[in-house]
Amino acid sequence: MANSAQARKRARQNISHRNRNMSLRSELRTAIKHVRKAIGSADKNTAQAAYQASVATIDSIADKGIIHKNKAARHKSRLSSAIKAMA
User: Fold this and answer.
1) In the chain, how many domains are there?
2) What is the rounded CA–CA span in Å between residue 41 and residue 86?
3) In angstroms, rounded to a whole number, what is the distance separating the alpha carbons of residues 21 and 74?
4) What pTM, to 2 d.p., does this model score?
């Protein structure tokens, strides 16, 4: 239990930061799912448009430190490879 005023404030901040981080992480997963769904639809133009939108989201979340920049690069690379592999 937080006893000092400083510890109580940090506990409050941790809750709000955790909620924000969970929301952003969910946004990341949703962006990736949209691209995967577009790839599954076999429409390359739609997939590329979804990919472009997701890249901005992925980079934004990586810049905020929610995920590591290498993880962001890995996601983008795999999505890009999947789009390039489309016929």
Assistant:
1) 1
2) 10
3) 20
4) 0.84
